[in-house]
Design brief:
Rieske Iron-sulfur Protein; 0% helix
Amino acid sequence: MISDPWVFAISYEELIEGTFHPVYPKGLNVLLAKLDDQIYAVINKCAHMACTLSSGTLNGSIVTCACHDWRYDLKDGSFIDTAEIRLRTFNTKKEDDNIYILLEGAS
């Protein structure tokens, strides 16, 4: 039996526009954000000291880590200050008023 690589994350109604929300599909700590009616998903862990990004702040698509002010663009996982650092990102889809994350083949 082949398992579906799309994993339920949250109901669409629970994720409010302009906010982020941590979810734990299959135990993986993922940060979801709804921005301009698009859903973005990145690993919920700063590349610097592994602090959770969900404890930080969101300004537009930029999340700032609460530990040391590292900033990332949630749209593509890029670190604002250097192109060499990126957060792991995940594809998302909305189906039947639920949000799903593709865990297989994440970048």
